[in-house]
Q: What sequence folds into this?
């Protein structure tokens, strides 16, 4: 059953990250016509479009997409319980675990986007449409760090500082919530 749990968890996690990325692209006002942005929209549009007709946005936040990501997080736990036990009894804990899982997925997505941006900066040197979107997504988080850090001879250490902040937040959540945080 471990292999099936891994497969189901991975599929859910990847799609949850795609849905979160759609919200993030909208919040960052990233280039909608970029091929990378278009692929994210096309992957989520069949489910998000009907939800947007029912659930309105609040300011810049696409509430329908956020709720969809949350529901996916809760469904992930329900599916994993069904695979493990073969039976399911609804518990309010699933709603809490879904919210915690969504927070952890946001942090994980930020980590992977920062890592991808760092690798692409070495390889493509600004010519990739994916790198352009990654820059649009992460620049609002990295610019304040750059204003505080002194220049280091051409090295941009803001990504490293944000990695450290993310790691600290991960350990802090583990301390506050307990070992369940690392299993989400």
A:
């Amino acid at each position: 059953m471990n292999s099936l749990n891994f497969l189901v968890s991975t599929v859910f996690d990847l799609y949850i990250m795609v849905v979160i990325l759609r919200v993030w692209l909208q919040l960052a006002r990233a280039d909608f016509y970029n091929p990378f942005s278009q692929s994210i929209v096309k992957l989520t549009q069949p489910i998000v479009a009907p939800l947007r007709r029912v659930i309105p946005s609040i300011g810049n936040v696409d509430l329908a997409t956020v709720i969809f990501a949350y529901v996916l997080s809760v469904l992930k736990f329900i599916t994993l319980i069904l695979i493990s036990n073969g039976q399911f009894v609804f518990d309010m804990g699933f709603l809490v675990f879904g919210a915690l899982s969504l927070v952890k997925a946001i942090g994980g997505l930020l980590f992977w986007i920062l890592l991808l941006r760092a690798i692409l900066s070495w390889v493509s040197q600004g010519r990739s449409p994916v790198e352009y979107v990654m820059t649009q997504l992460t620049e609002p988080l990295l610019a304040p760090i750059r204003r505080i850090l002194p220049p280091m001879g051409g090295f941009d250490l803001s990504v490293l500082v944000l990695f450290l902040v993310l790691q600290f937040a991960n350990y802090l959540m583990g301390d506050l919530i307990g070992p369940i945080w690392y299993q989400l």
About this structure: The first helix runs from residue 2 to 27. The radius of gyration is 18 Å. The CA atoms of residues 174 and 182 lie 7 Å apart. The chain has one domain: 2-183.
